[in-house]
Amino acid sequence: MGALSAAAPIPPALRTFVAPTRYVQGPGALDKVGNLVALRRSRAYLLVDMQLADTIGVRLAASLNEAGVATLMKSVDGEVTWSNIDTLTKHARSHSPDVIVAAGGGKVLDQGKGIARTLDVPIVTVPTIASNDGPTSRVIALYDEQHQLVDTPHMQANPELVVVDTTVIAAAPIRFLLSGIGDALAKKFEAEACARAAGLNSHRQRALALPAFIADGCFDELVTHGADAVSGSPDAVERVVEACVLMSGMAFENGGLSMAHAMTRGLMACPGSDAHLHGFHVAYGLLVQLAHEDHASYAAVRQYVAAIGLPCSLTQLDTEPSDANRRVLAQSVLDSPHRANCDPYPSLASLMVAIDKVEVDASTDLNANGRTA
Ligand SMILES: [Zn+2]
User: Which of 61, 229, 249, 266 has the fewest CB atoms within 10 Å distance of its CB?
Assistant: First the structure.
């Protein structure tokens, strides 16, 4: 199979909005998956993270079978590569599924999306962590064996159903929710930059007005409820999970991405930062974007990022802020398709200045805190 991105099927002068068909969130939602899938489907290929096979996998299989959905379960722990997706697709075909149900983190969901794309059947996503906004989108993050992002092909449609059990999400290590917050926080500023630059969203079109409202609401929710969610307040967890999964997903797919996401490929290529979660990369990339834009919200966002426990510098991402690493990051923006969605339009020199500013500001904080401690 070729690693191609789906070409826009309609002229770029038109504008499109997509979203999952149904989104269900709350404590205990996992056990409703069977009834919800059975409304429209009868044969499920259930893909589940290997570490969750005996717990979440067993519960989902029971829920599906009790609802009359004939289910074949497969546990996985591999990378999201075309090779792995091909192997899984062959296995799935033996069951003739009319739906793929994928439960786990981003890798499992993206492998499920790859199978759904190849078989042209709908997918149901059941994220067990809220570390990014992939569960609602049609985009597949495809990697090579060295875990470098190589392509972002699309499914024919967004997930038919997204089920987010907040009891499961709240039980996961907090770094996953923090990552989700970092990923979601940037969407408002990326959508704004994309609009200013007359850039294109994932449909390769200009955005409608709606995604910007969603991205603004997403940001407000994170600012208002983020800290309480990280502290474990159940009501705040509900609000923030919705912002991180549903709002952030609709915002990026329809509103467009910009510099914060353009930097993530560079951060995956640098020693140290490559071990951190996607949302940690995006939070740092957002600070560089806002510094580059000389944005009025730079200081406030930096304060939020630091207070909630996300990285404010390369040093905090365990990466040496060397000239070589800073050049890798700057070049990743110049090479990214999102470069065209940046405003002002970045050059190597302007990016190096912004990266330097973020690093210096973080070390100044550290010194100031040291003096007052
Ligand atoms: Zn993201």
Answer: 61
Token couple for 288: 């560089």
Q: Are the C-beta atoms of residues 122 and 95 closer than 8 Å to each other?
A: no
Q: Give the Å distance between the CA of 77 and the centre of ligand 1.
A: 21
State the Cα–Cα distance between residues 102 and 155, nearest whole angstrom: 14
**Position 2 in a domain:** no
Rounded distance from Cα 20 to ligand 1 centre (Å): 17
Rounded to the nearest angstrom, the distance between the alpha carbon of 283 and the centre of ligand 1 is 10
pLDDT in tens, 278-328: 999 999 999 999 999 999 999 999 999 999 999 999 999 999 999 999 999
Instruction: Calculate how far, in angstroms, residue 320's C-alpha sits from the geometric centre of ligand 1.
Output: 23
pLDDT in tens, 240-273: 999 999 999 999 999 999 999 999 999 999 999 9
Percent helix, strand, coil in the chain, to 5, is 55, 10, 30
Q: Where in the sequence is the domain holding 37, given as residue range(s)?
A: 22-172
Distances (CA, A) of 22 to 67, 72, 136, 161: 18, 23, 9, 5
Gap from CA of 99 to ligand 1 centroid (Å): 25
Tell me if 100 sits within 8 A of 92, measured CB to CB: yes
Quote the percentage of the chain above a pLDDT of 90: 92
* DSSP tag of 315: G
**CA 81 – CA 88 distance, rounded (Å):** 11
Q: Which of 129, 147, 172 represents a domain boundary (last residue)?
A: 172
For residues 191 and 307, state if they share a domain: yes
Residue in the block written with tokens 């560079």:
266
Strand, helix or coil for residue 102: strand
Contacts for 127 with CB less than 8 Å, ≥ 6 apart: 103, 104, 105, 109, 134, 135, 162, 164, 169, 245
Q: Ligand 1 centroid vs 281 CA: distance in angstroms? A: 9
Residue 277 backbone dihedrals phi, psi, to 5 degrees: -75, 155
CATH of the domain at 128: 3.40.50.1970
> Can you tell me whether residue 26 is helix, strand or coil?
strand
Would you state the structure tokens that stand for residue 159, as one six-digit string? 């997930």
**C-alpha–C-alpha distance, residues 204 and 338, integer Å:** 11
pTM assigned to the model: 0.94
Distance 136 CA to ligand 1 centre (A): 12
